[in-house]
């Protein structure tokens, strides 16, 4: 009896080990699947970000959040390392490095050469359908002393309120396209202005030429394409950005609410054509500008992103950049001190 028991135990041992081996194999496969499931979404995002075109309407909405995705992508190699999946680790490192290369340079001054010509201080603000109190904006102009002010969502009542608040005593020259709703814009200046033909694709983007002493004519556009908030608004947004002038001839400055970040292909196209972003040039390119009141999209809160910019062609130096809060608007005003090439 005792010998039989021993025999039974010894013959059963190899059979009982087989489920353990199978369980371990399945566990290893699931760990590998988990590691690649973490890496894959970041890899897809990085690949789409590198494509020099608008891939899809939904991607236009999503790509604005690339800085957040770049930060979160550090999770992928950490998960792969913890699970000892070396191929996934290598892929995760490449993906995280790719996204970092897209984003991190904005936090570093570009060291660009600054010409020795006259300064041009420029301030831009989205008034949120003219809601900003005129006195608050005029106080900011008085404090910052800009040479040029670019306004978006300029309504007739807002334009009249600014006149009554004394804006004309600080910036006596203007090119206005005051319209009801969010479609209006304007350019105000310390120096003489020649109004140009506004760029109108749904929203009006005022165009003007400012005669800057010592530098000559400088082209200014108060930028405000339609927001790509739905599929019907996407063509208006795309056409409004595509119609912006490219550098060449007279110095050009684009200032306003672009409804796009430096990760959007159409802004990258402007930069490739010869513009530089003032915030990016000074290492402030990750400073967010919208929304600064709670906003939701499909039930989710929208993280703040950088859609307000001052772009100047590469002949222009950037001495400083900053953002400023104004009441009754969910955009931060953007301000830059530029240095123009001498005429």
TrEMBL record:
Swiss-Prot/TrEMBL keywords: Membrane, Transmembrane, Transmembrane helix
Domain of life: Bacteria
Residue ranges of every copy of the Endonuclease/exonuclease/phosphatase domain listed in the record: 124-331
Coiled coil residues, start to end: none
Parts of the chain that traverse the membrane: 33-51, 57-79, 86-108
GO molecular function, one term: catalytic activity
UniProt keyword annotation of Transmembrane helix present: yes
Record bears the keyword Transmembrane helix: yes
Official protein name in the record: Endonuclease/exonuclease/phosphatase domain-containing protein
Species annotation: Streptosporangium minutum
